[in-house]
Amino acid sequence: MGAVADTIEAKLTAAFSPTRLELVDDSDRHNGHAGHREGGESHFNLTIEAQAFAGKPRVARQRLIFQALREEMAGPVHALSIVALAPGES
User: Block means of pLDDT (10 residues each) for the chain, length 90 residues?
Assistant: First the structure.
């Protein structure tokens, strides 16, 4: 993965200490669509599992993630698909 993905992973790890973190660059599937950049790293699929999400609804979990990644979402990342889980959820 590239620099943007590395930054996303580092920020999410620092913010949530996840027990699971899977980040997939899905940019190639969006070639020719809005927000696509040459070289990728504009569209990502994220699966993250962390205790920080326990007892929180889906929207609250997503807000926490977007807050942690506010700089990336304002810049190089056009779209982020999120699956945020608490430990034991599937």
Answer: 94 98 84 59 94 98 98 93 96
